[in-house]
Amino acid sequence: MNAILQTRDLWKAFGGLIVTKNVNLSLAPGARHALIGPNGAGKTTLINQLTGVLRPSSGSVWLDGEEITRIPANERVCRGLSRTFQINTLFPQLTPLEAVTNAICVRERTRLNILKRRFFRVSRRSAVIDEAYALLEQLNLAQDCLVETHTLAYGKQRLLEMALALATKPKVLLLDEPAAGVPEGESDELFEVLNTLPKEISILLIEHDMNLVFNFADRITVLVNGEELVTGTPSEIVEDPRVREVYLGKGH
Amino acid sequence: MHSFLGVLFDGLAYGALLFVISVGLSITLGLMGFNNLAHGVFAMAGGYLLVTLISKAGIGFLPALPIVFCVVALGSLVLERTLYRPLYKSTPLNQVLLSVGIIFVATAGVNYLWGPGQQPVVIPEWLSGQYAVLGLDLSRYRLFLMVIVAAITLALVFGLERTRFGAKIRASVDNQRTAESMGIRVDRVFQLTFALGSGLAGLGGALGVDVLGLDPNFAIKYLVYFLLVVVVGGPGSVFGTLLAALLLGVADIAGKYYVPQLGAFIIYAAMIILLLLFPHGLLGRRKSR
Amino acid sequence: MSDNLAKASRHVSFLRGRERWKSAEIAFWLTLVGVYFVFPSSLVFASQILITGLFALSLDMILGYAGIVTLGHAAFFGIGAYTAGLMAAHGWHDPFLGLLVAGVTAGIAGYLCSFLLSKGGDLTRLMITLGIGLLLYEVVNSATKYTGGVDGLQGVEIGKLFGVFGFDLYGKTAYIYVLIISFLLFVFTRSMMNSPYGLALRSIRENQTRALAIGIPISACLTNIYSIAAVIAGIAGALLTQTTQFVGIDVLSFQRSADLLLILIIGGTATMYGGFVGAVVFLLAQNWLSNLNPQYWQFFLGILLIVMTLYLRGGILGGFSRLVNLFRHWRNKEHS
């Protein structure tokens, strides 16, 4: 199988504390893969190693057949590995239009010579701005795209998280608890957006909301204490006694 | 050889003073991450208060010291409430600007009230003069300084390690969020620590009048030294601060004694190199927030 | 679909409107031209204000747009000033050559220094910038043989501009020279800040984690802007040397770095004009209050800083734009 994103024997320790233990994760192209596990299982640490914020102690990370273990975080984004954050990580004083335009300009920057990149106004790149607007419209952000980000409602900011990640045209998208903190009533909009994401993008989803996980994912990996407990289809995961033990405790 | 021991002695005494003044800044910085450049203002306030108490109120040198400590500590509480508190969560730039503003106001105010000159201090007779030890002339006052600093260090270490309040401080420095979730009121802990640290700075300033001098530019002149001690020592670490203060004291005095033509060059160069080698301080740790 | 396109181009025009030269900006530069005719006796002082404004603009690039706090920016101003001074004192009298070499020298220094800023927290970085500034001051102070130490560099002789316009005692040539150079550098900076590169810089200031996550090479960007800002600071320093025909050691002092920070903050950061407005207000107020009593000036400045950080963020231009917004809001209400 040709995995689009893969880790091989990934291992990370902070001093004596092992947070990632021999993880072999593999995403097929177009996958809808969920990563679940109790708090402190090492999910976010794993994401940080995939994106290049943390360097693993040993093992390797592969994207589309190339090793990216030693490649810096920003370069991984250019190669098609993008992420959203569990806590809103946005540009408070930029408008969503500027923020997304920025992300697209960064993606397209090698197509422009340095003079144009440095000294030509942003507004001269109407194709980029149109693309940014179309993306924002797709995510129901069109009405709010000219006000500063910090004035947006929380749910809208969650959507902008996604828009920024999508603007980089990822091959693989890592979604770190996209529904975190979104009140019940507003989460429908988010689910809808998740379900309409193009099939070419492979997705790794970290989520606590089991409803969302089982509706969305076709494969699930359960991570416990930094170790891969089991990987399988949703129905296999539901049946697995070890998973029940982790989530419900012994005796059930 | 003798001159070397003399330099070492003077340097240690000087470093001890830097420690007393800076330790409060170190702990509050470790606690709140507040970039307070105005810490020297409390030391300056202590110095002027001591001079005034002795010359105007006729209080003796020793009894004046605890008064200085208490008054500066109380005064700092007022500043903490009115000026510092609103900016805890603000950007480093705002914190720097606020503290520079405080330095300017203090400098101008002191200049207006006491004039631009150096303030003299009369040290009691039993503290002036020298002891001859192994052929070395050791200043009594500097010995007295070291004894006081040793006592303060022991009290601080004991307080931090063995008391309930000390445990709260350590927990808060270590991880603010966890401490809060355990029911520690971090803002209250910070307030008291701030007062204690400022009081110590005031005490240090009072003790240092004879060694560091005292004029309206005190807070600016020694700003680099206090910050240096804290940053090199690693914010939040008492031992780191002590080590950095003693090293800096000896290095500064030695530099001025052996290579006076280089001036402050050595200190600044050492500072940059140390900061590059230990960006989180000699004994500091990366904070996990 | 065509409806969408119409809407989208509305958004393009929104961005275009932001980047266009506004009438207030044109008025600002015309006023500076007007100063030449209206205050012919204060041109020396006016040149100093302009140079300080240009220097503050270079700080705005790194502080306002990229978000790096520095207490040692005078280092690059001083390097430029001494480079231009030493050249002029050793036989290279051409002013343009002086500007060029001063800018390049300061830029190289900035490039090298930028690597020292990649480590540690905010305070560590602040201390390193402070340390570099103080260190350079000490170096120049002790190299009396070459720099004149505290007495300053003597014997600075500047040649005629294009071999025709000599620098006169009233500072007429100097003012026009400074105005033209400042304007050119301003246009350079302005177009850079409105470009995709400028947008990327602002996003780094806003949120480094996210900037990295959309693929911006942060440290390369910061190194880059730090060097460019150093070039402009160096040119500002060279302009001061050339128009005063003297270099005092105070070009490198901590006071200059601190004052510069205050000027920019008072004027307003990330506005392009904050530095110039701040320089006008600061230098005029300093001139007036210090004549009364130097302590008044310091006291007033301190109070101003405290009040501004607690209540009036954004400086003069920030406050002004808030007033304008308030007015617009109020007018919209009236209309509806």
For the sheet with most strands of chain B, the description reads: 2 strands, antiparallel
CATH architecture of chain B: Orthogonal Bundle
Distance between the termini of chain B: 49 Å
State the total count of DSSP E strands of chain C. Answer: 0
Regions with little confidence, pLDDT below 50 for 5+ residues of chain C:
none
Q: Helix count of chain C?
A: 15
Give me the Rg of chain B, rounded.
Answer: 19 Å
Q: Regarding quaternary structure, how should these chains be classified?
A: heterotrimer
Q: Strand pairing plus helix content of chain C: what structural class? A: mainly alpha
List keywords for this structure.
heterotrimer; A: 252 residues; alpha/beta; six-stranded mixed β-sheet; five-stranded antiparallel β-sheet; 11 strands; C: 336 residues; mainly alpha; ABC transporter involved in vitamin B12 uptake, BtuC; 15 helices; globular
Structural description of this entry:
- Chain A has 252 residues and is α/β, with parallel strands linked by helices.
- Chain A has helices at 43-51, 73-78, 96-107, 114-119, 126-138, 154-167, 187-195, 210-216, 234-239, 241-248; strands at 5-14, 17-23, 26-27, 32-36, 58-63, 66-67, 81-83, 172-176, 202-206, 219-224, 227-232.
- In chain A, a hairpin with a 2-residue loop joins strand 10 and strand 11.
- In chain A, helix 3 crosses helix 5 (126-138) and helix 3 (96-107) packs parallel to helix 6 (154-167).
- With 289 residues, chain B is mostly helical.
- Chain B has twelve helices and two strands.
- Chain B has helices at 2-32, 39-55, 61-84, 92-114, 140-162, 164-174, 176-181, 186-212, 218-221, 223-233, 238-258, 265-277, and strands at residues 130-133, 136-139.
- Chain C has a single domain (23-281), classed as ABC transporter involved in vitamin B12 uptake, BtuC (Orthogonal Bundle).
- Chain C has 15 helices and no strands.
- The longest helix of chain C has 27 residues, at 218-244.
- Chain C starts with a helix and ends with a helix.
- The model of chain C has no long low-confidence stretch (mean pLDDT 88).
- The interface between A and C is large, with 49 and 36 residues.
